[in-house]
Amino acid sequence: MLKLPKKQVLLSAIGLTLLTGATASALTLTGQLRNIPLIGSWFQPSQLIPAELNLTAPQDSAVLPLATQPTAERAAKLEEIARGAPSIDRARARYLLASDLIQQDHGGKALPWLDGLEKEYPLLSAQILAKRALAYTATGDAANAEATWKQLVEQYPKEPVAAEALFQLGKQNPQFWDQAIAQFPAHPRSIEIAITRLEREPNQPQLLMLLARHAIYLPNTRGVLDRLRKEYASQLKPEDWEAIGFAAWENGLYGSAASAYAKAPNTPLNLYRAGRGAQLNEQGRMAYDAYNRLIQAYPDAKETGMALVRLADLAETPQAAIGFLDRAINQFPDQAAEVLLQKSALLQALGSDESALQARQSILTQHSASDTAAEIRWEQAELNAKKGDAQAAWEWARQVMEQNPDSELAPEAAFWVGKWATVLGKQKEATEAFEYTLSQYPQSYYAWRSASILGWDVGDFSSVRSKQPQVVRPEIRPDLLAGSDATKELYRLGQKRDAWSQWQTEFTSYRQPTVAEQFTDGLLRLGVNDNLDGIYMLASLDWRDAAEEKAAAKAIKQQPAYWQALYPFPYLEPIEQAAQQQQINPLLITALMRQESRFEPEIVSVAEAIGLMQVIPETAEWVASQINLKTYNLKNPIDNIRIGTWYLDYTHREYQNNSLLAVASYNAGPGAVAEWVQEFGAIDPDQFIERIPYPETKGYVTSVLENYWNYLRIYNPEVSAKLAQFSKDHAVIHRN
Predict the structure, then answer these.
(1) Burial (CB count <10 Å: 0-12, 13-18, 19+), residue 658
(2) Rounded mean pLDDT for each run of 10 residues along the chain, 736 residues in total
(3) CB–CB of 260/241 below 8 Å?
(4) DSSP 499-539
(5) How far apart are CA 320 and CA 297, in angstroms?
(6) Residue 735: its pLDDT value, please?
(7) Pick the catalytic residue: 382, 429, 435, 596?
């Protein structure tokens, strides 16, 4: 229903051809798995978190917990602290009180709290001047407001908040706007100035370039890039084309990106993207030429290895493709496993079954720990399961657990080790496999299924709908890992928009961010309700090649605060209201909403589904007639949640409250699910999911229920505590 979040085409991504047919089933097991205990040395306890990656540094503060509370609820407590003895908390309380009062248009009441505060709170001295100017504006004192803005520019000319002062001053004197654009081109106020000036006078290529560099998140990015390419190409420099290429790439405009990167400085990455963008845009000749330029100019660059693989895709004959792949294997052994699998598919297409089998077998023996080896093993497990050979399927799946514990396939393999062990009557091994899945991959859908099978009170397919779990949200949000001290302090205080504005001028390495910067950017995006990209930035944190970056991402993901950020609650109150009306689990609604829209209320899919729960207009019209809703707006969160929740309740009623079928019906439609029920009959629900013929729906069902499980394990005190104790106990057992 929802168009998936835009994702970068990763440099390390190489298309893989899966095993099929008799050749695949001829592979043999490697290693002596029958003599390896199911749980033991594989378990590695969490490592100590480096201080610079600690998301929740201790905060001995009475004010910071109040930052998450509504303004009216915190006012009295803040005022009590603000009238106390001098301290950092008193300064914070005064700042928050003034900010709240200004927001309520009570500038006169805010001014006393700001009086002399910069001496007590030097960290935010520039921001305090900005608040004072806003307070004067709220009282109608234009003269003092202007004087304060000028004081801010004079005393703190390099502070990002000076851009706000220049913006305000520029309303009367355009030179201040010129200064803002020159000094702070990435600041949101400078973006606003550029848009305003372009509306008045469109023919300003320098302002279009400013937007191309610093505002690629705007809805009209395509229009900006098209104008630059078509109207001002002769004026653009190579570094301009590089910026245009990056903006187009990030927005999925791969053909435009390719042509821009072709005119950018000749770096390995730019040449690769020129080729890859053209290839994705089905411009084979252009792609071929770009890849060859890359290979000739940078024969040892990692992008060259990628280019050789891509050239194999473009080759006119299988023999020519194999030649490119052999070069990639010989020159870039780190890619050998993935490339060997592609080569084996070509060999099989040429009728060289024995050579194809040898290529696959060499992956298992020479590159046993690779993700490609995990794919081969898991496909072997699935092939044997389809043939009814549970013993062979069990052994292949165990091999994924042993050799590829960090693979994306490992949680699924571990769970099915338990399922197939149950079929084989190996109940002890089955229990161990479910416990292993739960302890090693607690964030996965398969951890939820394991917990349910182990008897935990977490719901199953038939009971999730009726659960009403307690939800407790943390009072203090995770700390930022990058940015200035002022930006971090603003974020701690809940001044999300101000922190985001500061960050825009500080985040200069956005094309190749560090792990800490990417995490910070994700948090700040969530803070300003850019939930789609915020969740994406956090979820893709470990899509890295360098070992030290992978280790940093792993350290961050070991901390509860990371998961709290990744699974936010932007619309908890209307969700709870709709859940009470329909008597449906609020976490299930939240889980489905996260999958459908990433909490973006105005998003529209390619299928014209609208809003938070991605409701089709025709469906909304029918639901509205059922609940006697005369007027509604699907981009309004309350209306969308009400209609979507009613429909989710309807799909549950259609299938006797079976959440597997109800969620599948929400995605694929009731007609398709009815056909599957009739075709598959009364089979094991886990097998039913495996047989769903729509890959999108199969992934949708597991993703929604994985979301549900993560909300439960993160925010429900009972499940959270039980899982923590369970993991602790198993860590002790495995170490001994």
Answers:
(1) buried
(2) 31 25 37 33 51 82 92 96 96 98 96 97 98 97 98 98 98 97 98 97 98 92 96 98 97 97 97 98 97 97 97 95 96 95 94 95 96 97 96 98 96 98 97 96 97 97 96 85 97 96 96 96 96 96 92 94 95 95 97 97 94 97 96 97 98 96 96 95 94 97 98 96 88 56
(3) yes
(4) HHHHHHHH---TTS--HHHHHHHHHHHHHTT-HHHHHHHHH
(5) 21
(6) 52
(7) 596
The answer to whether 310 and 291 have CB atoms below 8 angstroms apart is yes
Q: Is 654 a catalytic residue?
A: no
DSSP for 163-187? HHHHHHHHTT-HHHHHHHHHH-TTS
Q: What is the dihedral of CA 58, 62, 68, 69, to 10 degrees?
A: 160
DSSP letter string, 118-167: HHH-GGGHHHHHHHHHHHHHHHT-HHHHHHHHHHHHHH-TTSTTHHHHHH
Largest CA distance in the chain: 86
Q: How many CB atoms lie within 10 A of CB 711?
A: 24
The answer to whether residues 340 and 15 touch, using CB atoms and an 8 Å cutoff, is no
From 223, 263, 230, select the one nearest 245 (Cα to Cα): 263
Query: How far is it, in rounded angstroms, from Cα 157 to Cα 166?
Result: 10
- Two tokens at 510? 């956005």
Residue 627, pLDDT score: 95
Query: Kind and range of the H or E element at 636?
Result: none
The Cα–Cα gap between 449 and 431 comes to 12
Contacts of 44 (CB under 8 A, 6+ apart): none
Cα–Cα distance between 339 and 530 in angstroms, integer?
38
Q: Which residue has the tokens 């994306």?
A: 408
Contacts of 308 (CB under 8 A, 6+ apart): 291, 295, 324, 325, 327, 328, 331, 332
161 CA to centre of own chain: 29
**How is residue 213 written in tokens?**
């560099």
